[in-house]
Amino acid sequence: MNGRTNLKTWLVTSVFFLAIGCATALGDVFHVDSDASPGGDGNSWATALKYLQDALAVATIGDEIWVAQGTYNPDRGVGITPGDREATFQLINSVTIKGGYAGFGEPDPNARDIELYETILSGDLDGDDGEDFANYSENSYHVVTSSGTNRTAVLNGFTITAGNADGAKPHNYGGGLYNEKNSSSTLSNCTFIGNFARDLGGGMYNRYESSPALNNCMFSRNLARRGGGMYIEGISNPVLTNCAFSENSTYGYGGGAGICNRDGARTTLTNCTFRGNSSAKYGGGMWNFYSMPTLTNCVFYGNSASDDGGGMRNYRSYPTLTNCTFSGNSSGDKGGGIHNWRPNSNGRPKLANCIIWGNSDKGGVDQSAQIQNEGGSTCVIDYCCIQGWTGSLGGTGNIGNNPLFLDPDNDEPNKKDYHLLPNSLCIDAGDNTAVPADTSDLDGDGDTVEPTPWDIDGRPRFIDDPCTADSGNGTAPIVDMGAYEANYIEVEMKFTPQALNLGSKGKWVKAHFVLPEGFSVEDVNTNTPAVIALLGIESDHINVFINDELVEIKAAFSRSDFCGSATSNDGTEVIVIGLLNSGQNFYGTDTIRIIDKSLEYVAVLAAHWLEADCGKPDWCNDADLDQSSVVNFVDFALFDGCCIEVIEK
User: What is the pTM of this model?
Assistant: First the structure.
């Protein structure tokens, strides 16, 4: 493309967006509040419209609709029959609908917080829904509909729930949102939860040539035969950024509990997470059928399929996956991580800078459980970390070393952590050229090794990690494998006190860090807990102060959290990690040993049961744990039977 063409394109684009901007600036704002009295004109919160449908009926190009906290049903409004299952909230070109406002009666009615002031678009017309889609028979077929829209139709800050697409076609698709053919709206900060479709797209259905843009949206606990969270079909190119799919499911012979891409879909996903989705057949996280999605910085964990492809299943499809992480996914048959079935004449699945580790199928956790090729399928794999790696899949720069995730085994699914520990061999082991070109040179100066691409956390991709061999050697920084880019600085650290037992009355174990010169107190993020990596223990609080002109950090961990932790009798070296406000992590190491003294303390407590007049200096030989001067049931309740000893390095 020559410079004159670029200039022409820029001018046309600028005029277009200027026109959109002017229209928005000149448009009206309609206020909607479910607590309002009927008959308002919507010009202020004091005269707000009661029903969202009434605002949609009068909104025109450039208008905005501000919706206050509360629940809104599509069968309410002028000219709409209550109980009409076909009633739906229709998106409109060049109209922005925004939820999350405080509304009339609040100290600041214009205050907007989508979590505090949740705004719900609900298909539960009778208000009687129960758990697991009970009492859905009278619910709306589609809570929201988009027909012939473009990206100027905006829905921002809503929870969309209780859609029930159980009718005849097309009312069997898209319980939460139905995108009619050639519909491409913009959705931001929206949650699709508890929607059902008898056939396709419980949360959202995208018909042919529909390419919506989704930013910071969540799909959770939606159900359909295919595409529990989202279904995308032929020649559709949705763009999803910072979206999450969790606990969606399919039933019958269905597939793609999180997303189902079908018949030429070219979905683009960046910084997206697929967790705990469950498919009754194929593709717990994603099922691709004759499709070509592109995924960058995406994480698949805890997804399952009764048949093939716990994380992803590809049928004659060739997705491109860059810097993605698959872990803890499972399948009842083959390919716990990724399953490829039959080649596509146009290409093969491509993986670069990915980590495929800890996935399982009926055969175990070997290489084939991570990636399984069948029916003549092959894939291109470069600079990836794959459990059980044998080299048989070919490619360049691949390894089979444990990636050393921060906390992949946490019992709480939302707290599983796939960041890399500072000694991971996946750090600085990727291929810079595989990073998508459209994000590697955001300032347009032609320098593709500058820190402009971002990982799933929003951290720069190309950084020279101080913990690796290439640091300071004058070579270009190298991208890490996986969805998370490591950025560590090692600092001096030690635990205190040296020994802690029940009689000491010590509540905290503290990790003491000292930052190098040049750091200030303001550089430390005290809102994010420090983590003891191998034990999965988070700090209760962090204090920061200046000592001898250096920044000292004290991270306090509850003593009781250490009880029952698995450590070696000879001591276990652990890594404690904290966060700086710059996004960089600091870490230190020390060796700890946890000793079980249950029998000893049970004997002491039993010997002094109900003994009164305890006091200093021994408080009944340390049996009076709460120092109340009597040994009673409270002391037994406080007893946790362990202590921690810190070993000097």
Answer: 0.87
Measured CA to CA, the distance from residue 324 to residue 352 in angstroms comes to 8
| ω into 293 cis (within 30 of 0) | no
Of the candidate ranges 2-16, 93-107, 439-453, 603-617, the one whose mean pLDDT is the lowest: 2-16
Distance CA 86, CA 54 (A): 17
| Bridge partner residues of 532 (DSSP) | 537, 576
- The residue-averaged pLDDT of 435-459 equals 61
CA proximity to 224, closest of 236, 214, 232, 213: 232
Peptide bond into 238 cis (omega under 30): no
Write the CB contacts of 305 (distance below 8 Å, at least 6 apart in sequence). 255, 257, 278, 279, 281, 282, 283, 284, 313, 330, 331, 332
Give the 3-state secondary structure percentages of the chain, helix then strand then coil, rounded to 5.
Answer: 10, 35, 55
* H or E segment to which residue 219 belongs: strand 218-220
Are the beta carbons of 253 and 227 closer than 8 angstroms?
no
pLDDT digits (tens, 9 = 90+) for 69-106: 999 999 999 999 999 999 999 999 999 999 999 999 99
Yes or no: say if 634 and 486 are a contact pair by the CB < 8 Å rule. no
- Report the amino acid identity of residue 396: T
What are the backbone angles phi and psi of residue 278, rounded to the nearest 5°?
A: -135, 120
- 3-class DSSP assignment, residue 579: strand
Tens of pLDDT, residues 488-531? 999 999 988 766 554 455 678 899 999 999 999 999 999 999 99
Q: Which residues pair with 264 in a beta bridge?
A: none
Domain(s) labelled CATH 2.60.40 in the chain stretch across 489-596
CA distances from 356 to 131, 247, 338, 349, 457 (A): 35, 21, 9, 14, 19
Into which CATH architecture does domain 489-596 fall?
Answer: Sandwich (2.60)
> Which H or E element spans position 622?
helix 619-622
Alpha carbons 63 and 580: distance in angstroms, whole number: 42
Q: Which whole-number Å values give the CA distances from 436 to 264, 441, 448, 467, 596, in the listed order?
A: 21, 10, 10, 26, 52
The answer to whether the beta carbons of residues 172 and 200 sit under 8 Å apart is yes
- Name beta bridge partners: 558: 508
By residue count, the chain amounts to 649
Give first-to-last CA distance, the chain, whole Å. Answer: 62
Q: What are phi and psi of 633, to 5 degrees?
A: -65, -25
Backbone angles phi, psi at 133, to 5 degrees: 65, 25
Phi then psi for residue 636, to 5 deg, are -65, -35
- Spatial distance between the Cα atoms of 387 and 360, rounded to a whole number of angstroms: 10
334 with 363: CB under 8 angstroms? yes
Residue 58 is inside which H or E element, if any? helix 52-58
Q: How far apart are CA 622 and CA 635, in angstroms?
A: 10
